[in-house]
Amino acid sequence: MAVRIVVSGATGRMGGQLGRLARATDDLELVGGIAPDQRPVDSPYPTVLPAESAAALLADCDVLIDFSAPAHIASLLRAHAETLAGRAIVIGTTGLDDAARSAIDDAAARSAVLVAANFSVGVNLLLELTRRAARALGSTGYDVEIVEAHHRHKADAPSGTALALGRAVADGRGIPLEQVRRDGRTGVGGERPRGEIAFHALRGGEIVGEHEVRFIGASERVTLAHVASDRALFAEGALRAARWLAGRDSGSYTMSDVLGLGD
Ligand code: NAD
């Protein structure tokens, strides 16, 4: 039986990709979309409704997929908490604030929930490789600089993926990222402190997404990198996650679970 999906952020770049791919796939059924703006004439969605009118759509789906904006998540999940109980939720929106994170944690008590800053197989593999490299290379002998590049429309910086990579380094080193995080170096003089994990964000044109983790030692450098060249990659990964998550027990899941990565 087809997995029935509703997409929040249906009128956006990712929402468009998700809708077109889901329409072209037999094992998924596109119930409808959620967005504050009007349904474009060429929309792949049979209907697009604002969140406050979306209860009936949500009651008719197996999985809600959200690629919208951080400010939208908490109100969507809280306003429809009862309807969403027992249905799966996939969240790809990045730059999540505390209100969004707390609403997601509450939703995970009633639904199977998967949050991923990046749905590509390659980036999730890169996260695991980065964790292992950080563990193997140690905390102080190698300076870690994370460089990311994205299109000029992107709202958050550094990207959610860059932060996830930073967290993977911190995990591998056994320390919280917040203790050693550095954003850019403008106005920061003096020698680079050992153990710092630094982020640098480039923005321009229509770059889909590039990430590079540099481990810079005194006499050698290790660089792990990923380049995305088509945003359909993220939509395909999110739909794969939706198929995998449908019908699972409540709780929090990761793309590593979906892809069978990890130790
Ligand atoms: P976009 O600006 O093209 O689309 C955003 C969508 O959300 C639109 O439909 C818009 O109407 C809706 N929206 C915006 N603000 C809203 C609000 N307050 N209430 C309700 N709906 C609202 O953005 P995009 O490029 O499609 O990206 C959407 C999100 O997905 C961003 O957070 C982006 O960083 C993230 N993203 C994640 C991945 C991943 O793999 N996890 C990949 C690409 C993009």
Put the structure in a nutshell.
With 263 residues, the chain is an alpha/beta fold. It contains nine helices and twelve strands. Strands 3-2-1-4-5-6-12 form a seven-stranded parallel β-sheet, sandwiched between helices.
Report on this structure.
Helix content is 34%, strand content 24%. With 263 residues, the chain is α/β, with parallel strands linked by helices. The protein folds into two domains: 3-115 and 231-259, 3-Layer(aba) Sandwich (Rossmann fold); 121-228, 2-Layer Sandwich (Dihydrodipicolinate Reductase, domain 2). Helix 6 (121-137) packs parallel to helix 7. Strands 3-2-1-4-5-6-12 form a seven-stranded parallel beta sheet, with helices on both faces. A five-stranded mixed beta sheet has the order 8-9-7-10-11, with helices on one face. 41% of the residues are buried. Helix 1 links the parallel strand 1 (3-8) and strand 2. The radius of gyration is 19 Å and the shape is elongated. It has helices at residues 13-23, 55-59, 70-79, 81-84, 98-107, 121-137, 160-173, 232-245, 255-259; strands at 3-8, 28-34, 48-49, 63-66, 88-91, 112-115, 143-150, 181-183, 197-203, 209-216, 221-228, 251-253. Bound molecules: nicotinamide-adenine-dinucleotide. Nicotinamide-adenine-dinucleotide (NAD) binds at residues 9-15, 35-37, 51, 67-69, 71-72, 92-95, 116-119, 234.
